[in-house]
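#struct-help
A.M.: can someone run this one for me? Single chain, 75 residues.
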Amino acid sequence: MSERDFFIRIGVGILLGSAVGIERQWRQRMAGLRTNALVSAGASLFVSLSQMIPTGGDQSRIASYVVSGIRFLGA
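D.P.: on it. Structure tokens below:
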């Protein structure tokens, strides 16, 4: 993965997380724009970094931990 693809993926993650955050903030929910943007940025960073590790990184395991962490925050 090139650096350009890496930054595009993180940017799209932040953009989509911000869209969810704007909707939640508009409906006056607890987790708003900043929280959702930061969580999605962190998730996209972890998954993108796991794809850049040449050996020793199990990408599906890292993605499953990210999903379970987001599920914990959502509950």
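A.M.: thanks! Residues 5 and 48 are 9 Å apart (CA to CA).
D.P.: also worth noting: Helices lie at 3-26, 33-52, 59-74.
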